Amino acid sequence: MVPIKSVISGSPASACGIAEGDILVSVNGEIINDVLDYMYYSADVNVEIVVLRNGEEMKFIAHKDEYDDLGLEFDTFLMDIKRRCSNKCVFCFIDQMPPNMRETLYFKDDDARLSFLQGNYVTLTNLKDEDIDRIIKMKLNINVSVHTTNPELRVKMMGNRFAGEKLKYIRRLAENGICLNCQIVCCPDLNDGEELRRTLRDLGDLMPNISSMAVVPVGVTKFRENLFPLKTFDKKGAGETIDIIEEFQALFLEKYGTRVVFPSDEFFLTAKRELPDMEYYEDFPQFENGVGMLRSLVDEFKNALEDAEYDGGERHITIATGYCPYPVIKQLCESVENKFNNIKIDVMPIRNDFFGNTITVTGLITAGDLISQLKGRDNGTELLISRSMLMQNSDIFLDDKTISDVENELDIKIKSTQNDGYELLDAILGL
């Protein structure tokens, strides 16, 4: 039973007489425990709703279009609390963060409901048989952090004695028609090499219900005191991992007509290899895992630059980026300077002193590192940064400083851009 915080005016629930403060008991005869129950059982055109009002059970019938929302609002999005992660993964990034940051950054969720609703990845270790039954019944396609299909190794890597046996849920979901996007955080000398081959082979056996797989390299910060000793990928290891992935891509492409598994962009940059063509990434199924982001950015940027015109005066700006994508961003900016000789772009790779120099991606750059490394130099009239450095829908960096803080320290206007080639070029040209 879930308390109703408010009822949207003019909604089906309001029209049939449900009121703020009622307690939702059931929808179409089904007990409601969370948002998935609510969404699934209220999808019909005619919906029977039972609530408690002042201790008395009352029944209402709401009429609406199929799949339209009833118009009820609750204290939390999930109508429940988030499920915490019960693992102690050797590669967990949250365990590698410095102390005294905002509390929300330390929360580890592992909630299958958020996998369906927001695309989060879940390990399945805190699920029970009845949870899997519900996913199958509701036909909820989800994202799974697999990491390895070796049960003993999964236990070791995830620090959870149930992690190995929960692999059975992956097979059960796939065999019941649930499509799974899978993630493998690859750690040198743990789940790479032959172990990676085993994982890709095992997941490939579950086709066609493995929609995609992303292999991403482990991130290691300087805050690893008393944690499992991890290494990062070097050029040779990154290249070998790409070779294994592309070996299986060829097998899957021949057998299923799709590559299925993709390495993240970071592997290509670490291995000093050219980014693959757009076709390599098919329909970009793992874009949010950093798979194909740079290729998409490059192609969009080049297309935008072909038709671009600039009739402004002298323009000098700075772009701040991580060391990993720096060569790609630098090359794009040089193409702009070659076309418009009155535009000067300084591309500045920002060393990650906050998390440690092993962290080279742009999204983990802090305001403090921007300030310390850009202060005192001529940055031009504007500083461009990636929106990935900021909290979602905010102007706050990971170290709790804001865009305004950085602007004041550097005495420069800052513009943030999405991972979009057209938007980046517009920002460079001052449009």
Give me the secondary-structure topology.
Elements: E1 2-3, E2 6-7, H1 12-15, E3 23-27, E4 30-31, H2 35-41, E5 46-53, E6 56-63, E7 72-73, H3 112-118, E8 121-122, H4 129-138, E9 142-145, H5 151-158, H6 167-175, E10 180-186, H7 193-204, E11 210-217, H8 235-256, E12 261-263, H9 265-270, H10 293-307, E13 315-321, H11 326-339, E14 343-349, H12 367-374, E15 382-386, H13 403-410, E16 413-417, H14 421-429
Parallel strand pairs: 8-9, 9-10, 10-11, 11-12, 13-14, 13-15, 15-16
Antiparallel strand pairs: 1-3, 2-7, 3-4, 3-5, 5-6
Assembly annotation: single chain
Please, how many helices? 14
Give the class-level CATH name of the largest domain. Alpha Beta
Strand count, sense and barrel status of the largest sheet are: 5 strands, antiparallel
Overall SS class? alpha/beta
Number of strands: 16
Spell out the helices and strands N to C: EEHEEHEEEHEHEHHEHEHEHHEHEHEHEH
Descriptive account of the structure:
The protein is of the alpha/beta class and 431 residues long. It has 3 domains: 2-73, Pdz3 Domain (Roll), CATH 2.30.42.10; 94-286, Alpha-Beta Horseshoe (pyruvate-formate lyase- activating enzyme), CATH 3.80.30; 296-429, Rossmann fold (3-Layer(aba) Sandwich), CATH 3.40.50. It contains 14 helices and 16 strands. The chain has helices at 12-15, 35-41, 112-118, 129-138, 151-158, 167-175, 193-204, 235-256, 265-270, 293-307, 326-339, 367-374, 403-410, 421-429; strands spanning 2-3, 6-7, 23-27, 30-31, 46-53, 56-63, 72-73, 121-122, 142-145, 180-186, 210-217, 261-263, 315-321, 343-349, 382-386, 413-417. The strands form 4 sheets. Strands 1, 3, 4, 5 and 6 form a 5-stranded antiparallel β-sheet that branches. The protein has a 5-stranded parallel β-sheet with strand order 8-9-10-11-12. Helix 10 packs across helix 14 (421-429). The longest helix is centred in the middle third of the chain and has 22 residues, at 235-256. The mean pLDDT is 94.
